[in-house]
């Protein structure tokens, strides 16, 4: 650049120098516009390719999930596995909590929910907590939950703790 000695300084260009600068910058400004346009085109292409890649990955993962070994376990075996998730001898009573077995197993997927509900042994013990200040609505909900629990235990004997 003929102006390299004064770029980055406080030099005040003359009218003639201003005309030279305008002429000097015409081509680089045109090149900058072309580069920005090309970057925009490539960014659009990249965005489209990334979207397509995500769709293909989602498709692959959805189908790989169908091949998961856990899906091949027979329902009876899965029910037995669930039984080993129940509370131990230290505290042998299940509680009505979605973060604990057996209710936890009903939240994973439809298949696990069906297996858990159809495995009476999961529902053969229950701890019922009744705090002294229990509203009628909460008491009704607990009654409904306990009734459902008892139904799921089918004909098995049930152990209850209060």
UniProtKB/TrEMBL annotation:
Any idea which UniProt keywords this protein has? Answer: Coiled coil
Q: Which organism is it from?
A: Rhodocollybia butyracea
How is this protein named in the record?
Answer: F-box domain-containing protein
Q: Which residues form a coiled coil?
A: 18-52
The reply on keyword Coiled coil is yes
């Amino acid at each position: 650049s003929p102006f390299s000695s004064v770029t980055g300084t406080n030099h005040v260009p003359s009218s003639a120098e201003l005309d030279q600068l305008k002429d000097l910058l015409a081509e680089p400004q045109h090149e900058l516009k072309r580069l920005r346009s090309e970057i925009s085109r490539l960014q659009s292409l990249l965005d489209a390719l990334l979207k397509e890649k995500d769709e293909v990955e989602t498709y692959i993962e959805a189908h790989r999930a169908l091949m998961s070994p856990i899906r091949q376990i027979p329902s009876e075996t899965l029910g037995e596995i669930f039984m080993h998730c129940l509370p131990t001898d230290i505290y042998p009573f299940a509680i009505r909590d979605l973060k604990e077995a057996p209710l936890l197993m009903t939240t994973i997927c439809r298949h696990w929910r069906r297996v858990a509900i159809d495995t009476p042994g999961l529902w053969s013990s229950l701890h019922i907590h009744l705090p002294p200040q229990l509203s009628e609505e909460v008491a009704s909900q607990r009654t409904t939950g306990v009734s459902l629990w008892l139904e799921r235990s089918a004909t098995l004997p049930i152990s209850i703790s209060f």
